[in-house]
Amino acid sequence: MTHPADRLPMPATRFVELSHPLYDNMPGFKERDREGREVYRTARVEIVRTHEESRPYLKDGAQFCATVVSFRTALGTYVDSPFCRWPGKRDIGALGLDDLILPGVLIDAKGMAPGQALGAEAAPPPARTQGAAIVFRFGWEGHHATPAYRQHPYPSMELLRRLVADGAKLVAVDTASPDAPGDMAFPAHSHLLANDVLIVENLTNMDALPAGAPFRFFALPLPVQGAGSMPVRAFAEVPA
Fold this sequence. Notes:
The chain has helices at 51-54, 97-100, 126-129, 157-165, 187-194, and strands at 13-17, 29-32, 38-41, 43-49, 66-71, 78-80, 101-108, 117-118, 133-137, 154-155, 170-173, 198-201, 215-220, 229-231, 233-239.
């Protein structure tokens, strides 16, 4: 029997991919380990048992491939939880779906210069900001995995403070960070995450987001307890 709700007209929508894939030996970054040694972090995808190797253990022609994936959790397109910056605050495993599936508001800031700050005048009206994911399109994805990618524009602290005050739940960028390039104090991360505003970095395919049209933003990590950051499948639901 058809439920009455099944007959309600639904608006036509489509989904837009916004995330970089993870793959073996993808472009990563250098950092210092606990002993002070410089190490290179990337993703590793290893086949630990091939289809052929699995056959002797199975029956009736069944065969499976087994893989192990390891990666630095701040790699590719990923979300930062408050715990990433602040001990004692929520980690990735504590985030709910209501934190990660949100109405999206696009701020189109293409054409800015490297290292240029976007001012508070770009803030959406408070009524649109409340409870939303604020998505910045700087047009920087074309520089991904090049030296120019790190010299990106960014939202000013005045703008981010406005977004926090107006009730934003998430800030997402198509750059390496919402912080100014080279600012090792990370004021944007500190302020946003202190106020429980999540951060998504390294979005791609941003030109597929329609300017001015409503959309829903999704950034879905594995719910790993104890993790500060985690790669996400980021995508948007937009009008068809």
